[in-house]
Amino acid sequence: ADIPEATGFSTPAACCELKPQNEALLGWGSAGREASKGGRRPAGRALPIERTRGSEILFGVAPCSMALSQARRDLFRLFLKRSGGPQRAVSSELVLQAAARGVPVLHVGRRELDALCGGRVHQGVCLEATPLCFKRLEEAEEPGLENGESPNRRLLWLVLEQIQDPMNLGALLRSAYFLGVDRVVTSRRNSCPLTPTVSKASSGAMEVFDVYSTDDLRSFLKAKAAEGWEVVGTVSQFETVENVPVISCLEFRWNKPIILVIGSEGDGLSLETQLLCHQMLVIPSGRALHPGIESLNVSVATGILLHSICSQNFRVSPTDPGCVLAHASHQQSPGPALKPCLCAVGNT
């Protein structure tokens, strides 16, 4: 069904304070009106705000800002904390973004924001919007090249098998986006959907990065292997996986399009998926591990593996002329210290 437009605004970029005369607009019920005296809510209670049918509430500065800057969702109302102080500059920027998209802005109290997002950390910002859904692989286009990229650039896809924790999924998307993964594909069955919590954990990366899903992960992996892709799985320890070789991620060489497959938080990759892999990667530990803590969080492990692979794209010698010139210019700069150049990062 079509989602109705937010009602009660004569101009799309209206900016309103939540005052008693706005009760009908905000859907405050009779109980809330009877409880309020002189336009003030009883101590410790938040007046309810009626949601637009079919909408969800994004929370946090980064997810809301990214959603406002993109054209991937229908947006209904932006809710900002009614206060000044250090958040004023952020609020002003969000108001400008909302005005550009024709999204009404409402200034509310902290308790209203807490109620909207279920008590999560909202940083004084909530945004009412339609949900984002996974894209089907059948709708996928071949990834294009970014400015300055070589047409021979190696491709890297990240495949997630039954990741169920929204915080993990968000962190995975954030790392994949930052490190240059070309596409993320998740199994549709027993996987976490794209929720506001995922967007918050991704620091807004979910709002700009398409995520695809498939109903038949094994057929997808078989098809990509037949096309010449290398399917690489992951395990937590150096252990035998039938006829699939297990190597350290430090020994892996990226010389063809690859798919890195990550398993669920509890069980890892299913045996059926492991048997479709050409190699299995393991992260070597830095010490003898105590029994029971031999593994990493799935999002942390994936970040390490992705960096180990992606750093091969820009790994050069510290004596490379371009690197030497970059370091020289850094040292001569009278301004604040600059970030290390990529050659230093790639050799860590």
From TrEMBL:
Pfam families: SpoU_methylase, SpoU_sub_bind
Domain RNA 2-O ribose methyltransferase substrate binding: 57-135
Superkingdom, natural source: Eukaryota
InterPro entries per record: Alpha/beta_knot_MTases (IPR029028), MRM1 (IPR047182), MRM1_MeTrfase_dom (IPR047261), Ribosomal_eL30-like_sf (IPR029064), SpoU_MeTrfase (IPR001537), SpoU_subst-bd (IPR013123), tRNA_m1G_MTases_N (IPR029026)
A GO term for molecular function: RNA binding
SMART domains in the record: SpoU_sub_bind (SM00967)
Subcellular location: Mitochondrion
GO cellular component, one term: mitochondrion
Chief location of this protein within or outside the cell: mitochondrion
Keyword match Transferase: yes
Keyword terms: Methyltransferase, Mitochondrion, rRNA processing, S-adenosyl-L-methionine, Transferase, Transit peptide
Family to which this protein belongs: Belongs to the class IV-like SAM-binding methyltransferase superfamily. RNA methyltransferase TrmH family.
Protein name: rRNA methyltransferase 1, mitochondrial
